[in-house]
Amino acid sequence: MQSLSNKEYFFETTASIEESKRKAAKAKNNNGNPIRLKSKILAIAADPFSQDAVYIAESAGTVRKVVLETGESAAVFKGPTAPVTSVALSPDGKIVFAGCWDKTVWSWDIQSKRPLRRYEGHTDFVKSVITARVGGQDILISGSADATIAVYNIATGERLHVFKEEMRGIQDLCIDPWSLEDPSRIVFFSSGSDREIRQFQYSATDASEAAQPILTHETSVFKIYFDNDGDLWTASADKTAKCLVRENGWKANLTLEHPDFVRDVVVYEQGGWVVTACRDEEVRVWNKATGELYHVFSGHVEEVTGLLLIGHLLVSVSIDATIRRWSLRPADLQRAKEEAKKTGAEEEEKPAPMLTEEEERELAELLEEDD
Question: Which of 213, 247, 211, 212 is nearest to 230 (CA)?
Fold first, then answer.
């Protein structure tokens, strides 16, 4: 029995070493023009005033504004001593918010970088934050692993409402763009670790949840995203991304299969592409109409945690602490596809690695012990 354990340990150790070598070699790649930082990146948000900057949430407890052209950190917002999981900006773009593992939402003045109010009340990690203007009042909505969604008055910090039904931990929140036509109310959706997608309505006089949740996945739904048609795209731990059609009662009409958890999904309407982020380190581009996989952007060396579209530019972030940029212009995408195909063919021509003499001797000894 002991010899079997040793043999298993040998193979496990060898696999771990090989994986470390693989990641170390891959980390040297410059695919996607990486901006290399020092902390795991957990989320990304757009800068409403510039197409050349993004805000990122870091595991080091900071929110960082990064200039994409230069890689420069234009601003760093500090205070939390725990990872920040999510980032959003106020409706006027003057305040940045971050959901944190310390169970609160932090806020900073963007111009001065000065910490402002902390929004409290959750009893577990805050996983998602969004903002909106309802009835002339700016509100913050936060979703937590404590299975609650809280609505706050941004100006006063007052907690206006708490949604808590039969939910489990919240993973993501997303505003229904069709509801923005009515300034007196907001409709938003949540996804969570219980596989259910829920719909909520909030106004100064009413707060309610739709009677029936949307059930389309087998397990946790990490991200939800509305396209220009008002349909809902989902990214799940069941290794699929789906399109849920509004006019068909949120039934799925397209399913994109992945080899691992799907962490995020966005839709590039101009090109007719759906882009997904996966735990297997890859960013995939799919034909929106057919569901056919068109191209895989490879460069990250850890799971991809977030995607953002800025015009034709796709920005991806990862716990490998890099921000990478990929062009979705037709010519650039075609060129990337051809280069990837060429690289893949070259890799196939390489001979399979053999065991070294020392490894063969160790393996033989272990097999003899087992006998």
Answer: 247
Q: What tokens appear for 179 in the block?
A: 């509801």
3-class secondary-structure state, position 201: strand
Structure tokens at 341: 């195909």
pLDDT digits (tens, 9 = 90+) for 6-34: 655 555 677 677 777 777 877 788 999 99
Task: Please give the residue range of the domain that contains residue 14.
Answer: 2-370
Alpha helices, DSSP H only, in the chain? Answer: 2-26, 330-349, 357-370
Rounded to two decimals, what is the model's pTM?
0.88
- The count of structural domains within the chain is 1
- Any residues with CB less than 8 A from the CB of 198 and at least 6 apart, and which? 165, 167, 189, 190, 191, 192, 209, 210, 213, 214
- Provide the CATH number for the domain around residue 246: 2.130.10.10
In this predicted model, what pLDDT tens digit does every residue of 141-179 receive, in sequence order? 999 999 999 999 999 999 999 998 667 899 999 999 999
Q: Which residues contact 117 (CB under 8 A, 6 or more apart)?
A: 107, 157
Tell me how far CA of residue 343 lies from CA of 83, 339, 347, in angstroms: 37, 6, 6
